[in-house]
Amino acid sequence: MSQVLFQQLANSLVDGDPDATFDLTKQALAQGIEPLAIINQGLVPGMNIVGDKFATGEYFLPDLIIAAEGMQRAMQLLEPELSRRQQELSIPGTVVIGTVKGDIHEIGKSLVATMLSANGFKVHDLGVNVPTDKFISAVQDSNADILGLSALLTTTMVEQQKIIQALKEAGLRSKVKIMVGGAPVTRSWAEEIEADGYAEDAMGAVRLAKFLVGGTV
Ligand code: B1M
Fold this sequence. Notes:
By secondary structure, the protein is α/β, with parallel strands linked by helices. Helix content is 57%, strand content 10%. α1 (2-14) packs antiparallel against α2, α5 (107-118) crosses α9 (202-212) and α6 packs across α7. The longest helix has 24 residues, at 61-84.
């Protein structure tokens, strides 16, 4: 039963029908389906199909934009539900997160931010297209334990490296753990730029953040 709904959700993104995405998400929640399952088994596969069609030239930029609108409307319903499931009451740590300069991809970064707050972290979300100096001052001002850097483009991944370099130059590198992620980012890239960790998805980011602040994974 849920499989049919997941397929319909994916199709609504591929067909560029944000109203249907919104209604189907509502329907899935009403049926008691877990928000993370709705995201991982319905919405993300749909976005991946849209991305593949864009890569092969079958879809154009407006198709990406309308699919993103559907995903964001679904997230408006899902984010409060994810937060309501918060299990931990003590604050494990403070996280500054954002998408790097030149990159306006928001959905994955916001999902990571939501999951971190749902797991008790205090999160400062700086948004998208964030310049290096803004990351540095936010780390300083909030006394962050973790800096999370999201990049969705191969051309913007290099900003993660520049930010780490800038933190070193500001004498702040040893004061904050850095985690990186985003579709083109890999574990070996994280090692190359001397980040403290890489996570493939939002739940992985929560596990990594807990590990980085000295808790259990
Ligand atoms: Co863009 N785009 N896009 N796009 N877009 C991709 C990323 C692309 C792979 C599509 C493709 O060609 N197949 C491609 C990048 C190719 C590359 O460089 N490797 C691409 C391109 C080329 C572009 C433009 C250059 C297109 C153009 O203008 N010609 C342009 C760039 C704009 C810019 O940033 N300067 C562009 C624009 C856009 C839109 C604005 C239209 C829109 C974004 C709207 C928005 O966010 N408000 C958009 C979209 C929607 C996509 C796809 C289709 C979907 C992205 C998404 O939201 N996925 C994407 C194709 C794809 O990913 N399959 C694509 C769902 C989301 C839940 O997953 O973001 O991967 P994701 O996040 C995951 C993980 O990556 C991880 O956890 C998240 C949750 O599981 N994660 C982290 C993310 N950040 C993390 C941080 C962490 C840890 C884990 O720690 C800190």
